Amino acid sequence: MKTTFNDVGLKLTETRKYAAGAYDSRHGKSTIDLTCPFCDADTTAYVWSLAGGGKRCANEDCGALFGSWGCAYKLKSMIHSGNEDDQGRAA
Prior knowledge:
This protein is of the alpha+beta class. It is built from three helices and seven strands, in the order αββββαβββα. The protein has helices spanning 5-9, 47-51, 76-81, and strands spanning 13-17, 19-24, 31-35, 42-46, 55-56, 65-66, 71-75. Strands 1-7-6-5 form a four-stranded antiparallel beta sheet. The chain has a three-stranded antiparallel beta sheet with strand order 2-3-4. Strand 6 and strand 7 (71-75) form a beta hairpin. Residues 84-91 have low confidence and may be disordered.
């Protein structure tokens, strides 16, 4: 199950700071390299996507969501139980 900003609002997530790397500022196509604080996967995101709906971790098994202000979010149940959500459903 993937993390959403609704989960963040309901306090069902763990929040960690992510590392930002190289920044490419071509007009209209500004991207930034990010490292997931939950699984260490490298992800490239459009800068505008972080301020909008966020960017998912490139590791599909992770499900973390990168947001603005340098924070990444992941469902607490996915961190502690591996791959099940709060209701015990397989992710």
